[in-house]
Amino acid sequence: MLYKFSYYFLIFLIYSFLGYICEIISVARVRKKIILSRGYLIGPYLPIFGFGSLIITLFLMDYSEQPLTLFVLGMVYCCTLEYLTSLLLEKIFKLRWWDYSSRKLNINGRVCLETGLFFGLGTIVMVRVFNKILFHLLDKIPKDTLIILAVILFLIVIIDFIFSTLTIIRLKIDTTKFNKKDATDEIKRKVYESIKKHSYSYTRFLKAFPHINNSNKAFEKVYITLKNIKKDRGEQNEK
């Protein structure tokens, strides 16, 4: 049971990361610049893509020889997930984390035909190509090693989720002040600013991700800034 959970969690996390990369590319194409701060969590992964990939893996693998069926069901499943996720996040945080109102054939700005087509094509490629490669690679990892790896990564994701949520709650970031419907960049910027101003929060951040400067260039500057703040405050306390 633990092995099966670990196996599927790694699939979830890998596709969450790949979804993060796709999101960066998509946003860069629209905004004409690369924006790395996408999604609610600090880490380089978007769980919505992971959940979508799990749904596809669990329910659509039997249709691997039926590309049209994969395309249609992939669109339906993923667009439904995206719509419900957008609705849930808006109910909780009172803002939109993404918005497709400017794109053609959208539904309440939560989903649109363009992303739906991408989901459909992505489902075909995922089921017929990526999953076969991914299963082959994961099957080569010894069971104990795979479980340990999954548990460590799971704890990191949970810490990230708790930290990101509590930071907004504890530091009283008023999300209703953001005028733009897609407020992802502003929220993440406010979280970083709050981290730098509150010793408890940035200490937790450094403890949760001690090697972030080595593994993730996108957040290296944030990490260095936090370490400098910690060092400066330590010197002030000594005086």
Number of helices: 9
Count of the domains: 1
Gyration radius from CA atoms, angstroms: 20 Å
Largest sheet: 2 strands, antiparallel
How much strand?
Answer: under 5%
Secondary-structure-derived class: mainly alpha
Order of helices and strands: HHHEEHHHHHH
Q: Mean pLDDT, as a whole number?
A: 78
Distance between the termini: 55 Å
E-strand count:
2
Q: What is the helix fraction of residues, given as a range? A: over 70%
Main sheet strand line-up: 1-2
Tertiary shape:
globular
Low-confidence stretches: 204-223
Give a summary of the structure in a few sentences.
The protein is mainly alpha-helical. The chain has helices at residues 2-31, 47-59, 67-93, 113-140, 143-170, 184-197, 199-208, 212-215, 220-238, and strands spanning 106-107, 111-112.
List keywords for this structure.
239 residues; mainly alpha
What does it look like?
The chain has helices at 2-31, 47-59, 67-93, 113-140, 143-170, 184-197, 199-208, 212-215, 220-238, and strands at 106-107, 111-112. The chain is an all-alpha fold. The chain is globular and about 45 Å long.
